[in-house]
Design goal:
With 189 residues, the protein is an all-alpha fold. It has one domain: Orthogonal Bundle (Tetracycline Repressor, domain 2), CATH 1.10.357. 71% of the residues lie in helices and 0% in strands. The protein is built from nine helices and no strands. Helix 1 packs across helix 6 and helix 7 crosses helix 8. The radius of gyration is 18 Å and the shape is elongated.
């Protein structure tokens, strides 16, 4: 089955974001990578900003779909938070280009709206974590909001570390150890 050109463009952008020596991505270089003309690229997207926005939207949808799935599961709050933490780390490891989007490293001032979306993403993600943690508030060492903030900080730190290593130091290498340390900081037992 032939791939949709719009998806090819998005996959090409994600692939370019994974490159070790990230240089400024132009519509010309994106069109070349997608094996289409710049005019064809603009037939699918009105601007480069809209391409970044749609790629980020996929990332956002994927993470929050998993959050919604976990919210419905009949498992402890601790298990829900652990599962979303691990899912997030593995998702970023598998999709290196999203690491650059979520760190805002790939975004220029022209993509300010996407950068704002990333900020909102983290705020919403922190809110979801806080809601999950509140399900078992009596088992928390501190307030759910502080615990959610700690988790987000660790996730953002892991993304930064992954990028700095040029995607060599996989964030999942010590994922269980990191979760154990977080868990000791967040949960009483």
């Amino acid at each position: 089955m032939k791939k949709n050109r719009k998806n090819i463009i998005l996959e090409s952008l994600a692939s370019m974001l994974e490159e070790k020596n990230l240089s400024r991505i132009t519509t010309a270089s994106l069109a070349e990578k997608s094996k289409i003309t710049e005019a064809a690229l603009y037939r699918h997207f009105p601007s480069k900003r809209s391409i970044y926005a749609e790629l980020f939207s996929f990332c956002d949808d994927t993470i929050f779909a998993k959050c919604n799935e976990l919210k419905k599961e009949k498992i402890s709050a601790q298990e829900k938070v652990k599962k979303i933490f691990i899912f997030f780390i593995l998702f970023i490891e598998k999709n290196k280009g999203f690491a650059r989007l979520l760190s805002r490293e790939a975004l220029s001032s022209a993509e300010q709206n996407v950068s704002d979306n990333v900020n909102q993403f983290y705020e919403r993600f922190e809110l979801v974590l806080r809601q999950m943690l509140k399900e078992d508030e009596k088992n928390l060492t501190t307030q759910a909001g502080i615990s959610a903030q700690l988790i987000i900080t660790v996730l953002e730190g892991n993304i930064g570390r992954y990028i700095r290593s040029k995607f060599k130091d996989s964030p999942s290498t010590y994922i269980e150890n990191i979760w154990t340390l977080l868990s000791l900081s967040i949960f009483k037992n």
